[in-house]
Amino acid sequence: MKNLEKLVELAAALPDAYKAGATELVERMGEVIEGFGDKPLEWRPELLKLVQGTSDRGKLPKGAGIGSFVLGEDVMETPMKTIPIRLWTSRQYWNPDPEQAQMLCNSPDGVTGFQYGECRACPYSKFDEENKRSQCSKTLSVLSITGDLKRIFVTNFSKTNYMSGMDWQGLMKKAGVAPHKRMYTLASLTSTKAKNVELIKAEPLKEGSKVEGPVLDFVTELSRVSGEDRKLSLENFYEYVANKKARGDQQALSAPADVVLLAAADEVTDVTPVEEETIATDVVENAPTKPAKGGRKAYDL
Questions:
Q1: Contact by Cβ (8 Å): 236, 25
Q2: With the C-alpha atoms ordered 255, 56, 150, 30, is the resulting torsion angle positive or negative?
Q3: Over the stretch 205-232, which tens digit does the pLDDT of each residue have?
Q4: Relative to the CA of 265, which of 124, 140, 147, 164 has its CA 20 to 30 Å away?
Q5: Is the pTM of this model over 0.70?
Q6: pLDDT tens digit string along 240-256?
């Protein structure tokens, strides 16, 4: 991530309780790692994982149980204090054959797909009232920072958890201010509609929900920087789509290798795939559990 100079200054001006953690975070955000292939690796936010009843416990850090939140190799304390930075919607259409883990189309903004064009006009995005699903999955993503300003992560709400994300978005809109001006808590609860499925529940912090002073200055700048990164990512995506159209290329492709896209929903919200009952939300059943070969397991800001 670039243009971090202001964040460095604002981290240094934070109260002692936040300063060391935020300073270390900004340092990580600016890291570029060489030696892994021809293209250097840049920092990316972590993905928040919610442990489900069907999760493979052998792949989880010690102490993780059903309903636990996992960031990296750490089990997070709940309820988990978090400040949302920004939200966006995306869509993904995966090969309906579970044996073919191939992303057939992706739209990082839920507007235009790299293969099938305008999402509103695409037959794969249409909601099937009979089956209560669409073939193209919709995901609501929230970029957040932990309440102690030590870690930045993305929560991807899809399938049964999609409505949980919409509920959180509703709370943010009700607050009537930019998302980063309020602090929330995240906890898990068991779905009453889908068997063996844990959901994410967001609530405003009961006391001290307003983000103020140096902390507000820090997260405001973080919102600006992440917004610039997302704008550049979308520009790269639409350039790819325009070039593809200019070539008259109609052949189905894997996700463009030079554009950072969202990972499959099952890769980010759940530690392992979850068999769940379908409810009346825009969901995809039997989605592949890993990206197409050669695809990037990442997401855009």
A1: no
A2: negative
A3: 988 899 999 999 999 999 999 999 999 9
A4: 147
A5: yes
A6: 888 888 887 654 444 44
